[in-house]
Amino acid sequence: MGLVRFRIRELAEEKGWTLKDVADRAEVPYSTVRHYARSEGLATVDITSIQKIARTLDVLIEELMDVVKE
Fold it and tell me: pTM of the predicted model, to two decimals?
């Protein structure tokens, strides 16, 4: 099973936003955004939250994530 890492922090910083800003704008719990941003590799995620975060950061889901292990 593959693991993915999300580039939420990097993309938020490009916009001058904090993770809290992303959470508020995406209407996703801060704890979820923080967990996804800090994790080095996740096997499962809530796709609805990922879609909201990607839309808020104005990127495709593919641009939001890096595969860290296949």
Answer: 0.90
